[in-house]
Amino acid sequence: MKIILANPRGFCAGVNMAIECVDQVLKHKGAPVYVYHEIVHNKHVVDDFESRGVTFVNGIEEVPAGATVVYSAHGVSPMVRDTARTQNLFEVDATCPLVTKVHAEVKGFARKGYTIIFIGHKDHDEAVGTVGEAPDSIIVVESVEDVERLSFPPDAKLAFVTQTTLSLLDAKAVVGALQKKFPGITPPPKDDICYATTNRQMAVKQLGGEADLVLVIGSQNSSNSKRLVEMAHQEGKAAYLIDDESELDPGWLHGVECVFVTAGASAPERLVQALIERLQRDFGGEIEERTLVEEDVQFELPKALRRLAVVK
Fold first, then answer.
1. How far apart are the C-alpha atoms of 55 and 68, rounded to whole Å?
2. What is the pTM of this model?
3. Residue 198: which of 162, 240, 238 has the closest Cα?
4. How many C-beta atoms surround the C-beta of residue 101 within 10 A?
5. Residues taking part in catalysis
6. pLDDT tens digit string along 265-301?
7. Measured between alpha carbons, how far is 42 from 270 in angstroms, rounded to an integer?
8. Domains of the chain, with CATH numbers?
9. Can you list the alpha helix ranges (DSSP code H) found in 216-294?
10. Virtual CA dihedral for 201, 207, 212, 214, nearest 10 degrees?
């Protein structure tokens, strides 16, 4: 059986930065460390941090007064930051800079009097944080059908932004519907879907043509990982999202001659390697790595971490 291993795959620059933030806080402060929401949407990453003394909270009021809190890569609303300051929390902001960019776009459009259409999944942590930047000026749409239900006066100032981890094809369809219904709508200055989401989806589309099966390493609450499975389905491939090799069903491999393996942007490489080893051991897999594009993006750690090191 042939194994096509996608490159790029796995951790993106934003995830690397966020995980390093928590590692550094643990190093300088020691446990317990508090993180607002899952630092990234991956079960193994979260479980590992919990075993080292990290407490993940869904409400900022759960963090003890005066403690250190790390904000997840998905970003938070201004209301969360305001509450943190009333509790005298030391904030380490691990928000992905590409998410921060979308926040800035929302604030800019709101200041100019626009009604903003946010294309994304309304319950996702990233969407919640972004909407919180201008809750009275923003409307969330998830589909073309949602767009068709929108109604604005002819002179309405409209703009749109998108979640960074969307399906490229779905986002294109929704944007197209918006622009058709509201020809004067203002787009973001630059595409909001992040480079890593784009690269991983295009790798599935362009590199896995001969595969009979696509296996994606990632957690069920990972938006960008689920989009990889959707891209495979759109390409006519059988595809499954698994947290690790233990979830591999041997029945999926009956009659399969070629498997395409990739991983979402929040999935550790060690999980990919464990899957590859099982495919080699149990199914005689032979690896061929294929590269769409080389990624060399890096994000600086937040300044708060440098202050934390000095305080120590």
1. 11
2. 0.94
3. 162
4. 17
5. 126
6. 999 999 999 999 999 999 999 999 999 999 999 999 9
7. 13
8. 2-11+195-291 (3.40.1010.20), 13-95+299-311 (3.40.50.11270), 98-181 (3.40.1010.20)
9. 223-234, 269-283
10. -30
